[in-house]
Amino acid sequence: MKHIYSILILLLVVGCTKEFEEINTNTNDPVTVQPSLLLRQVIYDYGEQMSYEGFTAGNLLGQYSTALDFNLFDRHDLKSPQLGGNPWPIFYQNLRDNEIILNLSQENAAYAVYEGPARIMKAFMSAGLTDLFGDVPYSEAFQGDTETVTPTYDKQESIYMDEGGVFDNLDKGILAIQNYTGTIALEGDILFNGDLDGWIRFANSLKIKYLMRVSSKIDVASQLQTIVTDGNFIDDNSENAIFNFTDGEPNSFRLAQLRVGDFNNYVLSETMDEILTNLNDPRIARLYQPFANGTDGGYNGLLNGIDASAGVSLADYSLLGTIFRENTGLLDANFMTSMETHFLLAEASEKGLIVADTETLYNTGVTQAFEYWQVALPTDYLTVDAALNNGDPLENIITQKWIANSINGYEGWIEYRRTGFPQLKTISASLNNDLIPIRMPYPAEEEALNNANYTQASNNTEGNSINVAVWWDE
């Protein structure tokens, strides 16, 4: 009887083992992913989320707008993100998905057309990440399923300058596109609709941007001049690296999808009010609304970083423009534009890094910025109020770039850190000893999930301080 029982057990085990793989296979879960679907997802998710992040938290740091409530972040307690202020997971989720596209492009000849765009997107997102935080997980990151879930922190200089870094990926991305001889089209591309030449222009404009960003550390003049001489960068608004939002969900600007109280939490900053008013700049009517208690249709800004317990009346300050809530079909997710490229080149010319006419580059940037925001350029704007030589030319260039980047608030803050322009204000009730932060802090999850590497990075930034400069700003 014991032998019969043992045989029955053996048969059951063999039978279960034979069927185990079939039973535990999810037939609805694909074993491979189409890079076209993933590329669309990476571009859209990054653009949508960072547009919101840049317009909420970034605009507070760059002093475009002010928060009336839930405003610890506006008071520079950056460890307390509220309605934005947590870009870390946005970067890493999309960099991870982009790495899948890059790997597929190198493993399968049918996907080779995706290598160039994937490398360019990796450079773009990696630069954005390190410019906010400084040293971050990079060379060991984006591959937790195969390598490590506790990556080391790479130095910012290495992320920019080493093989596999920002500049290397831009160069290799351009080369991959130039060397592509296949007939398979690039699909899922919501930036350029499959136009590979558009990706090359995008990469060259990014090279201009990042060369200027590190220009205090390395000699960038010859590289910049080569790009200018070749002339193959984003040169017109029709070539911008953008995708459009819609007026209605699900693809409207996220601020339009929140309750009205969240939208009404943001008002015109005193910094922006003074700059636009002093320039007699009509873009104020596009970006903001007249304050309700005004009698002449005027605008009124509030100093950043108020103590919310003091209480202010919403009717005394200008709300954000309807373009950010009711008419978001007029908005773009902005990756890189012609106006920003021309302002960067105007700065390079003003500093003697390239041979070009600074005023022409500056005037082109301003003109394209008005076109971008769909506002008529006053006939005397570039000869009177905003003339390049009306004051400090360099300050005028950076200030105009700051205004133009109103939906990319993090960019305005980063360029302030790099150049000192425009001159931001000491905020009302600072929780950072009246200092304007010069980096984002590592999120608390890093201390919990990657403690050893986080601890070293924290020690290198004086305890994860927001007042320690990143490499290109030291």
UniProtKB/TrEMBL annotation:
Kindly give the SUPFAM superfamilies that the UniProt entry links to this protein.
TPR-like (SSF48452)
Give the highest taxon in the source lineage: Bacteria
Name the record gives this protein: Starch-binding associating with outer membrane
Source organism (scientific name): Maribacter hydrothermalis
